[in-house]
Design goal:
- There is one protein chain.
- The protein has 285 residues and is α/β, with parallel strands linked by helices.
- The chain contains eleven helices and nine strands.
- The chain is 44% helix and 19% strand.
- It has a nine-stranded mixed sheet.
- Helix 2 runs antiparallel to helix 11, helix 7 packs parallel to helix 8 and helix 8 runs parallel beside helix 9.
């Protein structure tokens, strides 16, 4: 079981800028918990995501001397990828590839075809610098724009990403909270069976009353990689429901404990991070 903590996703939509020192303190606390990876920042346009303009400064302040967690940074273009791969302490680059043409244009100002070509370029950069690429399949469970969606369409793009770009890790992403057990289970079962060489993760956004059925459905369908954010902070600012946020990590861990699933996280460090998350996000949200 891999748990990916996503402070970047939790913070990026906040209107008030979280001071760099607070980001460093918070992420350093997360590094003590033992998450498999931490989605800590992004190399994207400062104009598009002003909250992440200090990613390089945050990275410089992180204490990686006694952690097993790897760092993941989101990139949206080749320039950002080139900046990210220059950072020795970053292990993973994440790229949001959407199966919705509308959202791909809104999110990265590229068509799906252009985005697919970019994935290939980023993968080359990763191979040459000993980094790993994680592709986030945005709108994997449907979209609010009327763009065509089906499990077969998602499967086709995943197959192309694996066969033509050698992508080995893909996170099926519910960008605006439209996933349900009825589409989560068949999508994961289909993809895991069709591409056993790919590690499929779940990046699920949810309302406070739907998190359990979503996380449970993904797990029972064979998913063993889950993204979350403490207290469910963050989520896509384009979601129609303001209650739709990230999957709350603490709730997922409760569910997995009930199911007898081991995560090997440090419980004391986790509680300290949970308390800090409440303070920081309560101050700047």
């Amino acid at each position: 079981m891999k748990i990916i903590e996503c402070p970047r996703d939790a913070m990026q939509g906040l209107q008030d800028f979280v001071p760099t020192a607070d980001k460093i303190e918070y992420i350093n606390s997360l590094l003590k918990v033992g998450f498999d990876a931490i989605d800590f920042g992004s190399f994207v346009s400062e104009k598009a995501v002003p909250q992440m303009k200090d990613t390089v400064e945050v990275l410089a302040g992180l204490d990686l001397s006694e952690t097993k967690s790897k760092l993941l940074a989101i990139v949206a273009n080749k320039k950002g990828a080139e900046m990210a791969v220059q950072q020795a302490s970053i292990s993973y680059l994440g790229y949001p590839f959407s199966v919705s043409e509308t959202f791909q244009l809104r999110n990265t100002n590229k068509t799906i075809t252009e985005s697919f070509a970019l994935v290939s370029d980023i993968q080359e950069l990763c191979h040459s610098t000993n980094k790993k690429l994680v592709v986030y399949l945005s709108m994997a469970f449907g979209n609010p724009y009327g763009d065509a969606w089906s499990i077969d369409e998602v499967a086709e793009w995943c197959s192309k990403l694996q066969k033509q770009c050698a992508v080995k890790t893909m996170a099926l992403s519910d960008t605006v909270g439209v996933s349900t057990p009825e589409n989560i289970k068949p999508l994961f079962e289909t993809m895991i069976a069709a591409l056993p060489q790919v590690e499929f993760g779940a990046h699920l956004h949810t309302t406070p009353d739907k998190w359990r059925e979503k996380a449970e459905s993904a797990y029972l369908a064979g998913c063993r990689r889950f993204d979350g954010a403490l207290n469910g902070f963050g989520g896509c600012p384009m979601a129609a429901d303001e209650l739709t946020g990230n999957m709350p990590t603490e709730k997922m861990l409760e569910l997995f404990e009930e199911m007898g699933v081991k995560t090997d996280l440090d419980s004391q460090s986790f509680e300290k991070s949970l308390e800090m998350a409440g303070r920081i996000f309560g101050r700047y949200s």
